[in-house]
Amino acid sequence: ATSMMDVSDGLAGDLGHICRASGVGAVIWEHELPVSPSALELASTVRLRPEEWALYGGEDYQLLLTAPVEAVPSLQQAVRSAAAVPLTPIGEIVPAAQGVRLKRGEDLLPLEGSAWDHLRDAGS
To answer: What positions does the domain PurM-like C-terminal occupy (predicted)?
Structure first.
């Protein structure tokens, strides 16, 4: 891996942190975002997009990492062996000039980065 952080503050915002710190952009493939069956069911009931929860929800305590594409198969095997959890590719790193975007079908949409701000209300 070339970078890694937890996404407890929301995938979109924490991806933005990685991109800014590394001087790169990213494209997230919406159709690859892992969403639990129960979240899909609830989203259908309340008519919301479950991908929005995957991007902007927090408290997930998952890890986001970047790695060269050729390293992905060996990383997937290592993680599966060590922790018995899946490692799911959800996008790619691109030049900074392309920004941070969401690929939804054929569209590339700006990905608004809104990470949880732990200090937002502190001392205000």
So the answer is: 2-97
Long-range Cβ contacts of 47-55 (<8 Å, 24+ apart) = 54/11, 55/10, 55/11, 55/12, 55/28, 55/102, 55/111
Residue 69 is encoded by which pair of tokens? 């594409």
11 burial (CB, 10 Å; 0-12 / 13-18 / 19+) is buried
116: in domain: no
> How many domains, in total, are found in the chain?
1
Flag whether 48 is in a domain: yes
Residues of the chain with pLDDT under 50: 114-124
